[in-house]
Amino acid sequence: MPALVLNRILNDCDIRAIFSLRKVCRDLHDFIDEAIPCIHLTYIQVEVRIHEICLILSNDQEIITIRYQHNDGNGCTVKFNDTNHLLDEENFIEIFAKDLSLILKHQSPKTVLEVFSFQCWDHEDWYERQRGQRSWDCLSVIDNDGAECLMKPLIEQIAEEIPEQRIAARALETYGIFPRHTKAILKLFRAGTLKTIKIYDPHRIRIENNEGYTSDEDYLLGLDEIYDLEQWKQADELTTRGFHVARGVPIDGFGGFSRGNVFIRDFSAEGIARLCEIFLQSPNFENFTVTMPLGPHSNFFVSQPSETWKAKLIKQFGEPSNFLKFSKSDDFMTKSSIGRENDNQKNLRNFIDDVIPAIQLTRIKIEVDAKTVCLTIANRQENIKSTYEKSTAKTLANDLELFIKFQKSDPLNIVKLEWRDTDFKLDGPLDDSAKEKMLEMECNERQSMMDPLVEALNEISAAPMMNVKILETVGVFPWEVKPLLKLCRPGTLSCIRLSSPHRSKFVTFDCSDDPEDYSVDLDEIQELEQWKQAEVLNILGFCVPPQVSVASYAHFLKGVVFVRKLTVEDIFYLSQTFVESPNFDFFTITIPRCKNYSELREVDWITELNKKFGAAAEISQDPDHSNIYDWVVRSPERALQLRYYTPNTFNFTVKEE
C-alpha cells in the first residue's frame, strides 16, 4: 500500500487502532514506528504490582488499558483490546518500557499531558496481614518484598528507553514509591512544563490517624537530593502525604514553590523565619503548609509545645500583633481590608503592601452614575460592592490597584466599566428642544463623574498588569476606556467589547437622522498591544469612523463591527487577510441604515464584488433568503465564505469543504 494512503489512514486512527495495526505484520509495524502518527493523550497512569504492570491511557474521550504480566513458565502476556498476546522469551518489564517509550514518541508535541500518575500497589494479602497487627510492623516486609525488588529494575529499564526531559506533563503524582525512585522518574519530565509534584504514601499504607503517627520514626524518609533537580526547582506546587521528611533536608529546597503542603520531622523557628524570608521575595507565592508529627518519639515537642513555640516565634518575629497570618481559608476581603482598619499601625499597611497576599477574583465591575461610583469585586462564592462619592475617584483607583496586586496568577474572567443613565421620569413625549436639553443635562452629569475617574485610572501604575480575559464597556467612550485597557496584560486579554457609548434613551441607533451622530473615534486604542494581541472584538451601538483603517481590526479571529463607511477594496482586503489567518473563525461588518444615509445605495456591491473576485456570486435558492449573496475565497490551506446580506451587512466565515 502506498505510503501516502497509509499516512492518511494513520491520521484517522486512535492509539488503540495504531497499536493493533502494529501487530498485523512486520512491514506495517516498521512503517508506524517510522511515521510516528500523532496521538493526543491527556492522562497516563502506570500501576505496578508484583509480576504485573498496568498502563492506562486517556484522551478525555476514552480510556485504554494495557496489562503486561509475567508468565510462570516463560515469557509474558500482553492484554490489550480484549485479546491476550503471548510473547515467548520476553520480559514483561522490557515490553512495557518499550511501549511507553513508543507512546510518548507518538504523543503530539502540541498536547501536554495533564497528569502522569505512577503507582506501586501492595500484595492483595498485605491488607489481610495488616488487620491482625499494627501497620508499622509491615513496613520492613513491604520494603523487602516489593518496592526495591520491583521498582529498581523497572526504573532502570525505563531510563534506558526514555531519554531525560522527554515527558511533557503538567503534574506528576506518585503513590507507593519512595523518593529515591521518584527522583529517577522526575528526571524524565521536561523542566518548566511540569508544574505540580505530588508524592503520596511511599509505604503504601493508609494510616487511620494521619495527623499523629504512633511511631513517626518509621515514616521518616530523606528526599535523596531530589530538590537539586531542575524539574523540582521550576515546579509551582508540592504535596507530600504519608511520610515525614527527615532531618538534614535544606529548608531552601521548599522555597521555590508557590503552593505546598508537606510533613517535616524537624522544623525550627529559624526554619520558619527562613521560609518567610524566601516566600516574601517570591512574586508568585500563594500558600504553604508545614506539619510536624505528634508521636511520642517527636523529641522537639515538650509538655507544653504551644507555649514553647509561641516563645520561639515571638523571639523571631516579635509580638503577634506585628505580623499577620494569610492562609487559603481567609476570604479575599479580609486580606484586603486589614490595612485600612489599622492605618494607625505604620508597619502593618506597609507589610500588607509588600507581602501582597494572593486572592482569587473572577470579576471586577465599575459602575458610574451621576452621583456615585460603585466598585464590585467577586470570586466564585460572593460579590462585594463598595460605593464612592463623586470626589473620591482617586480612592477607587487606589483600591483597584491594590486588588490588581492581590490577584493570583489565574486571570479574571471579565472587567467591566459601565455608565448608567439618570432615570428621568417623563410626563409625556418630548419635542426636539426638550430632547436636546435632556441630552445636554446627561452630558454635563456624565462628564462631571467620568473625567475624574479617567484621570485617576491614568495614574495607576502599569506594573503589575491586570490578568483578565475580557474587557467590556457599556455607555463608555473609547478614550475613557483607554487607561483601563492599558492596565490589561497583552496576550492574556482575549476579548474586547465596546457597547453604546452614547447610551441615551432619547435617540435610537438604528434610526438616527445622521450617521455622524454615532461615529466615535477610537482614540488610537487600536495602536495598543492589548488591542493588537486580542482575538475577539465586539463593537455595538456606534460606528467606527472612516479614518480608522480596516487593517486595525483585520487580525481578530472573531468579531462584530459597525462602520461609518466601507469600500469594495476594504472587503477584498479583509477577505484576503482572513483566509490566510490559520485560526480565523468569523467576522461581521455592518453599515447602519440611518434615515439620511444614501451611501449604501451609491455602490452596486454585487456587481463590484463580482468584478473584484472574478466570479459571480452564488444566490440563495431559498425564496425567503433571496437577499443573500455568497462568494468563496480560497487559500492553499482553507476556504473562506463571504456572505452579503443586502443592503448593509457582510459576514466572513470559514467554509467547511
Automatic annotation (TrEMBL):
It holds the Pfam family FTH. This is F-box domain-containing protein. InterPro entries: DUF38/FTH_CAE_spp (IPR002900), F-box_dom (IPR001810), FB224 (IPR040161). GO terms for biological process: innate immune response. Residues 1-46 form the F-box domain. It comes from the Eukaryota.
